[in-house]
Amino acid sequence: MRTQWRHLLGNHPLKRTSKISSLNHIRPCFYSSLTNSTIVSSNPSVSWPQSMNVLIGLFSESDSRASKGVKTEFSHQVSILKDELLKHHNDTQTVHKLLRDLGSPLFSSYIDGSALIELLKQIYKFPVLALEVFNWRRKHANFTFPISREEYAKGIRVAGQAKNMDFAIELFTEAINNQCKTSVTYNALMASYMVNGLVDKCQSLFREFKKDQSCIPNIVTYNILISVFGRLMLIDHMEATLQEIYNSRLIPNVYTFNNLITGYVTAWMWDRMENTYLIMKQQAAEPDVGTYKLMVRGYAHAGNLKKMEEMYELLKQHSDEDNIQLIKAMICAYCKSSCVKKIEKIDSLLNLILEEEYSSWLIVSLIRVYAREKLLDRMEAIMNVAFDKKVAVTSVDIMREIISVYYHHNIVDKLSSFVKRAESAEWILCRSLYHCKMVMYSSERRLEEMENVLEEMEKFGINSRTKKSLVILCIAYSTWGPKCKLEQLVALMLKLGYDIHWEKMPL
Q: What letters, b where the CB count within 10 A reaches 16 and e where it falls short, cover 63-89?
């Protein structure tokens, strides 16, 4: 059965409609809502790309107070404390002294908790330190004001980021006991479960949340669920969650659509990815930098270079930051394409990242594309990077691409040097490597070196008495001599039961 939403994703019109009419048109599109039947088991080990960035984005609405705090007068004071804490983040005693001397008066000046929330936001890349800071605030009774709901929510998220789920659950329970239970605290614990791969617990908490009469799920809650289902590629469940958003009379925001797009990219559903973006543009949720990054990545994986480049231009209009992972994905897309100017485009993108940032798969992709284009110098340069970084090629096809370059340029000595390095670096070895060396040595009448290749093959467990190996020797001896070796070789081949096509032998 196909829903109206799927119909929209498959056949979305490009004409522009009003925001209100667009929302009303989409609202009744799903055939099912999110019930207990949608709760599925999952593997806790499932990972999610850039999970903490997802977590931060999910809570942008809930953290409005903290976000505004960046622009207020206390931002500078918080930054001073942050800088001091980062200098001594490995020294717990010094951290506590700084919190006592600088943090205590700062936190006391903002009883709504905004100073603590802003500090935790600024040190989120150091989750252990952030957890220490929150725990210090929690344990010290010299404050005359209790921990706020927002502080509890931030603490739960910090604990999740630090992978301390026991403490996150403890804080959630404490918030309930202190009458600080809200949608925000539920969302914080759900998101912490999500980023730690505890999807079953996340969904179980959502069921509990829906039964709670004191607070109700909001758009952030459903964004988390969509993200959970997207990571599991449960597209039907993801779309059913969107339907429940409309049934609950909530309005999807930019993070809702970004999570949908992420799910479609993960599932390689390029049409739905693209049409979700088009629907998004017609509604109240204008695409942001995160949207453009997702679209660039999606088009790169889909091999749609034209739209990838168009979306990348849009991204550059909204952000000056070079996203390393995105650039790598684009390079990989060019490597796999038949684009005439792909080498020029690859080199242009490589200028945006440092050699130290090359990942293993990127290095191997570059080796392959330079080999296919017979670009010897560039191929050898990137192979040197691979050897230095101890990146091993494990594909026989790529090894054959490499040796074809040396054969094309007729440089057997460089091929021989490469084979020795590949042997030492434990790259995958194949018979073609050694056969190519034998043929090239034979063509230069270097028969002794050609014969030595047979010993190399045996050394690395490659049978040197295959028919092809012996035929290469036959051709060499029949061309250069000596005749006695040729006769011995023919006798050996007959003994091994190999057919000899004399008419093809240059005897």
A: beebeebeeeebeebbeebbebbeeeb
pLDDT for position 29: 41
Helices (H), ranges, 4-126:
4-10, 19-26, 51-58, 64-69, 74-87, 92-98, 104-108, 114-122
> What is the tens place of the pLDDT at every residue in 177-198?
999 999 999 999 999 999 998 9
Residue-level pLDDT at 58: 52
Q: Of 351, 352, 394, 344, give the one whose Cα is nearest residue 369.
A: 344
Helix (H, G, I), strand (E, B) or coil at 146: coil
Q: What are phi and psi of 113, to 5 degrees?
A: 85, 5
d(CA 167, CA 150): 17
Q: Is the dihedral of CA 45, 46, 52, 58 positive or negative?
A: negative
User: What burial class does residue 125 get, using C-beta atoms within 10 Å of its C-beta: 0-12 exposed, 13-18 middle, 19+ buried?
Assistant: exposed
Task: List Cα–Cα distances, 374 to 208, 377, 399, in angstroms.
Answer: 61, 9, 13
CA dist 52 and 158 (Å) reads 10
- Could you say which DSSP state residue 393 is in? P
SS3 of residue 184 by DSSP: helix
Q: Residue 266: which residues within 8 A CB-CB, separation 6 or more?
A: 230, 231, 233
Give 270: exposed, middle or buried? Use CB within 10 Å, 0-12, 13-18, 19+.
middle
Quickly state the pLDDT bin for 72 (edges 50, 70, 90).
low
Write out the two tokens for 455.
Answer: 């010993």
350, 382, 335, 299 alpha-carbon torsion, rounded to 10°: -40
Name the nearest CA neighbour of 295 among 235, 46, 220, 318: 318
